[in-house]
Write a structure and sequence with these properties.
By secondary structure, the chain is of the alpha+beta class. The protein has helices at 2-20, 31-39, 94-104, 111-121, 145-157, 165-180, 184-197, 201-204, 208-214, 220-230, 246-257, 309-321, 327-335, 366-381, 389-402, 410-422, 430-439, 443-453, 467-476; strands spanning 53-56, 62-67, 73-81, 124-129, 133-141, 236-242, 282-286, 293-301, 339-347, 353-361, 460-465, 482-485.
Length: 487
């Protein structure tokens, strides 16, 4: 009881400390703030790399350890290669169901016992699936470090899919999926991703109807088989930062994970195939109760490791990714008043990515928005309005102000270094190399890369809204629009 009382008192003090002395003050982002930051010349940042030890177990599992005794905490970030890229058409969405069940109970702890274990030991843990990997995070007080590592090992190594909560988890997920049909944003994401990813597994987990139909096939046996086929210590990397003794932590890790044998899992690597039938295609999802038109415009893009990623990042910041400072925002928000916000971005995945522009507009302006986005891109590509030194300076300067805020604690730095080295095959100082790379760019380099890698002739446009309000403007321009009726 005394130990629990001490923990409780410590947590109260910690919360009060955070409330009174916040790590990062609340900031209201606005055009004025961005202008102020852009006008100030910010120093080129440097992110300190913590001293760390890399250990690799006989089963291929890799762990990065870094001591940080500022607070009596231990934090963990980890990745397991795999994710929804390993799914089949028949079992779409199984990665998410598997991780939900893993979060709920194990072979040695039922649902109530696992919850109680976390509560008694002050341990937090979460695992979820993404396209190319499973992501997990955990934390505890330093005094509970053994319980923390033991819990991570228990959840990752001993999932229980035969449990009584299996049916409940599936039913809960079914209800969540049904609700997605009523949200404009969910529909926008689902149809945009599934159409551009086509027959690739990336499209499966985003396809709500496909996942719903697959739920009944996700039996405990199927989940167990999928776990064995996709979860392997040889594909696992983990970063641990906090107040601990290095040798002691290494011993705990070896004890909990050392006897976990690798099955030699071979992950599927299937590249996304670009379907040229999507070039200049316009699809409208008719949602009768929609008051606005949600739009996403884009095309298939490069996979992770894209060699021009840094100059393209800055080029895209100038075009549409730089919030209030971008050309799209200046044209369509500030000058025309068509949108409150418009944003262009890139999703890099290991088997193929996407480039996109997203916005929310009045239905009768959707056709004009598409034309304006195309014209803005062509103005740069064709040299009518080349990227200027002033635009590049402003965006580099803003990046110098905001980028280091992503690395305000040691675990964020350690996890990034681990991810870059072990998964992306980058060098040891990848964070600062990235900072140097974008600061060394010239307007000519950024212009050249934007010209080379933007393709307005490939635009695929997805709109969610009321067809009666959206179609007339497209019909006046003679543009073909495919309409998908939801119900």
């Amino acid at each position: 009881m005394k130990v629990r009382r001490l923990k409780f008192l410590f947590m109260i003090l910690l919360v009060l400390f955070v409330l009174v002395f916040p790590v990062g003050a609340e900031v209201e982002f606005s055009p004025d703030l961005f202008a102020e930051l852009a006008d100030s010349i910010n120093e080129i940042p440097y992110v300190e790399t913590p001293a760390y030890k890399r250990i690799e177990l006989d089963n291929g599992m890799v762990v990065y350890l870094a001591v940080d005794d500022e607070l009596p905490l231990v934090e963990v970030v980890g990745y397991i290669k795999g994710g929804s890229s390993q799914e089949s058409l028949e079992l779409a969405g199984i990665s998410s169901i598997m991780t939900r069940l893993m979060n709920t109970g194990t072979k040695n702890y039922n649902e109530a016992e696992l919850s109680r274990y976390k509560e008694l030991n002050g341990v937090n843990f979460n695992i979820y699936s993404s396209y190319d990997r499973y992501n997990f995070s955990a934390n505890s007080l330093s005094m509970d470090q053994e319980a923390l590592i033991a819990l991570i090992a228990e959840i990752l190594r001993n999932p229980e899919f035969e449990a009584t909560y299996h049916s409940r988890i599936l039913q809960e997920y079914y209800q969540v999926l049904l609700q997605q049909y009523y949200y404009d944003f969910s529909l926008l994401e689902m149809f945009f991703n599934t159409i551009l990813y086509g027959e690739h597994p990336y499209a499966y987990s985003d396809n709500i109807g496909l996942v719903i139909s697959a739920l009944e096939r996700m039996t405990p046996a199927q989940l167990g088989t999928y776990y064995q086929q996709t979860i392997d210590p040889a594909n696992l990397v983990m970063a641990i930062s906090g107040d601990f003794d290095l040798q002691e932590m290494e011993a705990i890790i070896t004890q909990e994970f050392g006897d976990w044998e690798s099955k030699g899992v071979e992950l599927k690597e299937e590249k996304v195939v670009i379907d040229e039938a999507n070039f200049n295609r316009i699809v409208l999802i008719n949602k009768e109760d929609a008051t606005h038109a949600k739009m996403k415009i884009g095309y298939n893009f490069y996979a992770s490791g894209f060699e021009d990623e840094v100059p393209f990042l800055m080029a895209n910041q100038i075009f549409g990714g730089g919030d209030f400072s971008s050309r799209l925002m200046d044209n369509l928000r500030s000058e025309r008043g068509y949108v409150y916000g418009i944003y262009s971005g890139v999703t890099y995945n290991q088997q193929g990515g996407l480039y996109y522009i997203s916005t929310d507009v009045a239905p009768d302006k959707a056709c004009e928005i598409l034309a304006a986005v195309r014209a803005e891109m062509l103005a740069i590509k064709e040299g009518e309005e080349k990227i200027s030194a002033e635009e590049l300076f402003k965006n580099v300067n803003l990046y110098n102000a905001f980028f280091p805020k992503s690395y305000t604690n040691q675990i964020s730095v350690l996890a990034k270094l681990m991810f870059d080295q072990e998964i992306m095959d980058k060098d040891k100082d990848s964070i600062n190399n990235f900072i140097k790379a974008y600061n060394d760019l010239t307007p000519a380099q950024v212009q050249e890369v934007f010209v080379k890698h933007t393709f307005p002739e490939r635009f695929f446009t997805l709109i969610v809204g009321k067809k009666a309000d959206i179609l007339p403007a497209f019909q006046e321009q003679g543009l073909a629009v495919e309409v998908i009726e939801l119900f």
